[in-house]
Amino acid sequence: MRRRTFLALPCLAYFTQSALAAPREPIQRITDKRTVKVIVVCYDPLLKSQGNQKLSQHMGWNDPRPMTEKLIGYLRESSAGYADFQLVEWIDVDVFPAKRDGFRYDDASFLAMWKDRDLVHQPDAASYANLFQDADLAKRVTSGDVDEVWVWGAPYFGFDEYAFKIPGDLVQYQSDNPWFYRPYDIPDCGRTVAVMGFNYEVGEDNALHSFGHRCEGMLSITVGRGAWDTKDASNPWSRFTRQAKEYPDDAQVGNVHGGPNAEDGYDYSQVKEVLSAAEDWLNYPHLTGKKSMVSCATWGEPHHLNFQRWWLAHLPNNQGETDGFHNSWWRYVIDYDEAIRTLPPPGAKPAKARTAMY
Length: 358
Fold this sequence. Notes:
27% helix; 358 residues; two-stranded antiparallel sheet; single chain; five-stranded mixed beta sheet; disordered N terminus; 12 helices; alpha/beta; 17% strand
């Protein structure tokens, strides 16, 4: 929800021998589903100076309710039904959210800032602790009544695209990249909780984009073993994100900021065709190396939205395990605690994160 450009995380051509030698058994798709109970907190204050219009209405922005319904549908579709998000409650909040330093915009200060960006309050970061306190969320997460939180709001409200808190900040692998783990000031609820930050100024394509960044972060600290380096030919997560621009002979699926044919960031409408092994990832871990031509026509228009759907749908989502990790990477994104509990990551040394985006 913050107004800033997200750079792709440090973004590979061959797997480890054990993966290459995996028996060619028939692929068994994930057929179960994980119900995720979501509570939505929508910060859309009434502007008393503007006839008690909601901020979104006054600014001519989008209605977050239908966007939420579409987003739930896209995630269910992209995960082949595994990610079954269920909206358990919608909370409309008639105030501007608190910043980490306690500051809150009011009608006058926000509308003045919108006309003159030199008036943007700094530091911009919102207080997740205040969010949890206002809606009594910690108790509900701890009890299992709620699994994760989606927050809708306006630009400069200060919530990040995604955040999540692991109990004790105990990550499985240490990383020097602070973008992977983002606990901020989310209370410790005794179980991992994700908080998505969505912006109703823009469409659900941006919300799905934000969810993709969550996938990138959580897969980097699990399957990526704390790294995301496309030069690491042994790591499946890193190889998944390869693009033809850097690896013309080994383009795979790409990352949230661009597909296998992207020439730059946010290049979702790139008409250039490249050979990509993207479809082969549907067979993970039994990769054959088969490639096909890929361009923006592969995912179609609207290019930004449909690319995000296409990219998410290519995350491995099969049964079984390979090299100590689930063959369904959606398990790490949707049900982190259970994924780690049922299959402790190989060689992991759980410890408090030494570097994180707090």
